[in-house]
Write a structure and sequence with these properties.
Length: 237
Amino acid sequence: MVDEIIPVLKVENLHKSYQQGDTTLQILKGISFQVGYGERIAIIGLSGSGKSTLLHLLAGLDAPTTGKVEIVGENIHQLNEKALCKLRNGSLGFIYQFHHLLSEFTALENTAMPLLIRGENKKQALKIAESILVKVGLGDRLTHIPAKLSGGERQRVAIARALVGNPDCVLADEPTGNLDEETASQVNDLMISLSRELGISFVTATHNLALAAKMDRTCRLHNGMLENDVQLLGREN
């Protein structure tokens, strides 16, 4: 008997539309899927297919027209702003195509920021941040500001920042889209290895089929609908 997957993230019949004058633009049309603890999911699709819109809904950064998103059993769109921010800070990590690091802070301070926002003791937050930066290979770059780091190093700091709070799930939106092919491959491998080591789920929207093939499952977003369990050549399961 196969144990039922306990979802860290559950999406039910998600719709999203926008009104432009007299025209209704339907972006998402009844999306449903779930992600188990430690599971890695890739979402592929053409530019403009709604991948970023979907991730924004999963993060509670936008509200669906209809449907439900649950993070660790909580319907996030029924939470008030304070409760939603607390849930995001504790259960979710975020990685974007552009690193969005704070330019005046060091790699160590940028990484520790989610913990400091959470109210952790500064000394302890910096200690945890340092341990994560060592894991991503930046133990010798702790005091460097973003301007002194390469593109790949900045993205490694962004990954460390996403993981520092030990989230249940990381949402990644084209995390290697701004990197050259070799650096992108290194960052891809890093994300996969850290996900396995730390048991953190990943939902990654990407055009990079090499990255998608390393995930446990791939879903394709097309015409507002999600095709689950897409088969990719070279999948590394």
